[in-house]
Design goal:
This protein has 357 residues and is α/β, with parallel strands linked by helices. The chain is built from ten helices and 19 strands. β13 and β14 form a beta hairpin. The structure holds pyridoxal-5'-phosphate. Pyridoxal-5'-phosphate binds next to loops.
Length: 357
C-alpha cells in the first residue's frame, strides 16, 4: 500500500507575501505620462501596456495611467486584453497583432476592443467576421508588421471603419533620414485612407517634433522610466525598483568564496547576505559581480554569481541589516543597460512573476 500525503489546509491558508517585490512609484508613472502628453503638443498621448505593462503589471499601471488622463491603450496579444478591461473602462484598447483567426475577430466584437489590421488578409478576415471599428497599421519601412505602402490602394481596405491610422518608426531613438522618410510616407497614407486619428510616434518619436505627432502618440518605455533619447532624460523619472528580503547573513574570512564556481573570493573578513532574487526573477547572470543593491544611501555590491533564486551581497558597510530586512536593486534603466548590455526594454520586461506587485 502506498502512503498518500494530504495537504488539507493548502487551499484555505493565506499565501505568505513573497520575499521579493516591485516598488512601483505611481507618482513617477503619472508624471511621466503627463510629461509625454505635454511633449506631444496638440496630440494626445496614449500608452503601450503590452507585455504586462512592460513587466510592471498591467493591472497596476493601467488604472494609474487612466486616472492621469490616458484614454488609448495598446496591447500586443489578445490574451492581454482581459487584464486591461479588468481594471479600467478605457475609451480605446487596440490589439497590435491584429486578428489572426476568426476567434480573434469574434473576441474583438464581443469585448469592444479594436483589432489593428496589419495586412490585406487581416482586413478580409475582419470584414468577413462582420467588421466594425478597427485601427490600421501601415508599414512605412520597418518591414515587420503592417500593410505595405504598395498595397494601400487595395480594395480590401475600402470597407474598413478606421479609427487610428498608425505606423511605427524604425529608429526613433536616433536621428536618421529614415525618420523623415517614414513620416512622409505615413502622411501620404493619411491622405488616401479615411480615418479619424493618425498616430506615428512611440516614446522616442515624441521628441522628434510636431510633424511626428499626428493626433495620438503611443509611448511605452518612457512611461516606465526608460530614456530613449538624451533630451528626454531630465523630464522622466524612474518608476520601478526591484526589492528583495535578506534570507541569511553570515561572516566569512579571507580566502572564502561565495556562490557557484567560487567566482568571488574574500580578501579580508566580511559580512555577506543572501537575498531572495535570482535570474529566474529576471535578475540575470550578467549582474554577477557587477550589480549593486541599496539600503538607504549604503551601496551593497553583488558578490559572485547570481543564482536562480538567490543573490549574495556585501553587507560589510551595513552592519545594522538583519535577516528579513529589505534591500533595493540599483536599477536606473539607462545606467543598468550600459552595465549589463541588456536593453532598457529587456530590463523591464524580464521582471519575473514571483515579485509581489
Ligand atoms: C511597443 C510599441 C510602442 C511603444 O514603443 P516604445 O518604444 O516603448 O515607446 C508603440 N507602438 C507600437 C506599434 C509598438 O509595438
Amino acid at each position: 500500500m502506498t502512503m498518500v500525503m494530504m495537504f488539507p489546509d493548502t487551499p484555505l491558508s493565506p499565501v505568505p507575501s513573497p520575499a521579493l517585490r516591485l516598488d512601483l512609484d505611481r507618482d513617477a508613472l503619472r508624471s511621466n505620462w503627463l510629461a509625454l502628453d505635454r511633449m506631444s503638443c496638440k496630440a494626445r498621448a496614449g500608452a503601450a501596456v503590452k507585455a504586462d505593462g512592460y513587466g510592471l503589471g498591467a493591472r497596476q499601471v493601467v488604472p494609474v495611467l487612466q486616472e492621469a488622463g490616458c484614454q488609448d491603450f495598446f496591447v500586443a496579444h489578445w490574451s492581454e486584453v482581459a487584464d486591461v478591461l479588468a481594471v479600467a473602462a478605457p475609451v480605446s484598447v487596440s490589439v497590435l497583432h491584429g486578428p489572426l483567426t476568426a476567434a480573434d475577430a469574434a473576441y474583438a466584437q464581443a469585448t469592444g476592443v479594436k483589432p489593428v489590421i496589419n495586412s490585406i488578409e487581416q482586413a478580409r478576415r475582419w470584414m468577413e467576421a462582420g467588421g466594425g471599428r478597427c485601427d490600421l497599421m501601415i508599414d512605412t519601412g520597418i518591414n515587420r508588421l503592417g500593410v505595405p505602402m504598395s498595397q494601400i490602394g487595395d480594395e480590401a481596405l475600402n470597407g474598413l471603419d478606421v479609427d487610428i491610422l498608425l505606423s511605427h518608426l524604425v529608429s526613433s531613438e536616433e536621428d536618421t533620414l529614415l525618420n523623415t522618410a517614414q513620416c512622409r510616407r505615413w502622411r501620404e497614407a493619411c491622405c488616401v485612407i479615411p480615418h479619424d486619428r493618425a498616430s506615428l510616434a512611440n516614446s522616442g518619436g515624441i521628441a522628434l517634433g510636431a510633424a511626428f505627432h499626428g493626433d495620438l502618440t503611443r509611448p511605452g518605455i518612457a512611461l516606465y522610466g526608460g530614456v530613449p533619447r538624451q533630451e528626454m532624460a531630465g523630464v522622466l523619472s524612474q518608476v520601478v525598483r526591484p526589492q528583495a528580503a535578506i534570507l541569511q547573513v553570515r561572516e566569512i574570512v579571507a580566502g572564502d568564496t561565495v556562490g557557484y564556481n567560487g567566482t568571488f573570493m574574500a580578501s579580508a573578513p566580511m559580512r555577506v547576505g543572501t537575498i531572495a532574487i535570482g535570474y529566474a526573477d529576471g535578475y540575470l547572470r550578467c549582474w554577477s559581480g557587477k550589480g549593486r543593491f541599496l539600503a538607504g544611501e549604503v551601496v551593497l555590491p553583488v558578490l559572485g554569481r547570481v543564482s536562480m533564486d538567490m543573490t549574495t551581497i556585501d553587507l560589510t558597510a551595513a552592519p545594522h541589516l538583519r535577516e528579513g530586512d529589505w534591500v533595493t536593486a540599483d536599477y536606473a534603466l539607462a545606467e543598468s543597460a550600459a552595465v549589463t548590455g541588456l536593453s532598457q526594454y529587456e530590463l523591464l520586461t524580464l521582471l519575473g512573476r514571483r515579485f509581489g506587485r
